[in-house]
Amino acid sequence: MRYYSIMNQKKTIIYINFAPYENTGNIRDYILETYDISIIFLFNFHRLTKLDQSSKLTVYRHNRPIYHTRLFQTPTIPSIAFISLPVRSLIIFAQIIFHTLRLHRKGYTFDDFFTVNAFIAWTGIILKKLNLVKKTIFWVWDYYPPIHESNMVMFMRWMYWQFDKPATYESDKTIYLNQRMVDIRKKLRVLKQNVRPIIVPVGTNPIKQTLKHDPFSFIFLGVLKKIQGLDIFFDAAKELALYNPHIILHVIGGGPDLDYYKKRAQSCPLPVIFHGYIPNESHVNAIIQKCHIGIAPYIPDESNCMYYSDPSKIKRYINFGLPVITTDVFDFSKNISRKKAGIVIPYDPIYFTNAVKKICTQYSFYQKNSLRLAQNYTYTRLYEKIFKE
User: Fold this and answer.
1) Which end of the chain has fewer CB atoms < 10 Å from its terminal CB, N or C?
2) What's residue 42's pLDDT?
3) What is the pLDDT of residue 3?
4) Could you state, in chain order, the average pLDDT of each consecutive group of 10 residues for the chain (389 residues)?
5) Comparing C-alpha atoms, which of 167, 114, 138 is closest to residue 7?
6) CA-to-CA distance for 155 and 177, rounded, in angstroms?
7) pLDDT at 269
C-alpha cells in the first residue's frame, strides 16, 4: 500500500537520523510505507548508558526488514561527550560512506537521500558527487544561535554552521520547519535564491481520544536537560499537592540531567515515575494515552535552539487529545493559545499551577480542542511536500 500515487516511481531512499528522533512526527513510518526499499542509518550520538539504543543500519523492502547490522559506536563518557563530537562525527561519516558503497556493490541504487541534520546532509552531497545518490533532501530541523555562556558550545555551534551553509545551498531540495526558521535564515542571508521556501512542520497521527481515569497524571516526554524546564513542576509541586495530592508525573526519556531530577523527586510531595528511554513506540503511546496533561515548559533563553524548532513532544501529546502546558518558546505556541488546546505560560511555577487548575475545571473543552488541533497536522497529508518532485 502507498500513501500517494505520486511516489510510485520512487524506488530507494537512504534515510539517516539520530535516536530517539528517527520517527519524530511519524517520518520513518511515512518513508517505509512510501518507498519500495528504505535504507535507514540510525545513530545514537551519545549512548551514555547501556540502556540507550545501539547505532544500526537496517534495510527494508516494502516495510519489512531484510537486513540489519550494528554500526560502530564510539565509547564515551559524559565528561567528554561534547568535546569528542568532531571525532564521533568523522566516524559516522566514514560508516555512511563505507556501507553505502558496500550496498552499491551488491546492486543497490539510491534515488533519494534524506536527513534532518546539516552534517549528514553535507555527507549526502558528497555521496551525490560520487554518483551514488540521485537526489538529496534536507529537512532543516535546527538553528543554533551563535551565543552561549560556554565558549566550547559556541565553537561547536560555529562548526555545525560550516556544514549547514553548504547543506542548505547544495541540497537538491531544502525544507524548513516553520516561518521563524525561514525568517532567521533570510536575515542571515542563508536561503536559496529564487526558490520559494517550502515549510513542512512536524506531523501528527491523531487517534480517537479515550476516557481518562484517576490518578490524575502529567506526562513529560523528551531528553532530560535543564533547558527543557522540568524544574517548574518540582517548584510548583507543593502547591499542586495542596490542590490535588493524587497527581502523578510520568517522565519518559533519559539525558544528562536524569540523576539531578531523580534527586529532586526524592523530596517532591508528589510521586514521579521515571520510565527511562523506551524504544517501543506503542509502549510510549500507552503511557501518554492514560495521562491527562502534557507538559513542555521550555526555559525561555536567547541561546535556546528550541526557538526555531518544532515541538515534536507537543505534537505527540495532542495526538491523544492531551491539553498542553508550555512556554512561549516555539512558534507553534501561538496555535496552542489560539485553538485553546492548552495554556501558554511564562516560565513561573505560580502560572504553571494556575494553568493546571484552569485546565482541570474545563478539561473536556481543552481535550477536544487539543485533538482538533492535531487533526490539522496529519503527517500523511503534510509529508508529500517533502518528497514530491
Assistant:
1) N
2) 96
3) 42
4) 46 93 95 96 69 84 94 69 76 96 95 96 97 97 74 73 87 93 85 84 86 87 92 98 96 92 97 93 93 94 75 94 94 94 97 98 96 96 90
5) 114
6) 25
7) 97
pLDDT, position 7: 45
- Pull the grid cell for residue 237: 509541586
Domain parsing of the chain, residue ranges? 5-200, 217-375
Q: What is the CATH number of domain 217-375?
A: 3.40.50.2000
Pick the closest to residue 156 from 79, 81, 55 (CA basis): 81
- Cell numbers standing for residue 240: 499542586
Q: Taking a C-beta distance cutoff of 8 angstroms, is the pair 351, 140 a contact?
A: no
* Buried/exposed 34-73: b ≥16 CB within 10 Å, e otherwise: bbbbbbbbbbbbbbeeeebeebbbebbeeeeeeeeeebeb
Read off the C-alpha cell for 300: 525561555
Question: CA-to-CA distance for 127 and 389, rounded, in angstroms?
Answer: 20
Q: For residues 86 and 159, is the Cβ–Cβ distance under 8 A?
A: yes
* Superfamily designation of domain 5-200: Glycogen Phosphorylase B; (3.40.50.2000)
- Contact of 229 with 255, CB cutoff 8 Å: no
DSSP 105-155: HTT--EEEEEES-HHHHHHHHHHHHTTSEEEEEEEE-----S--S-HHHHH
Q: What angle do CA 191, 195, 198 make, to 5 degrees?
A: 80
According to DSSP, residue 206 is labeled -
- Cell readout for 80 is 567528554
Q: Please check whether the two domains, 5-200 and 217-375, share a CATH topology.
A: yes
Cell 517520518 appears where?
27
Task: Annotate 17-50 with DSSP letters as a single string.
Answer: EETT-TTGGGHHHHHHHH-SEEEEEEE-S---ST
Three-state secondary structure call for residue 173: strand
Cβ proximity of 88 and 312 under 8 Å: no
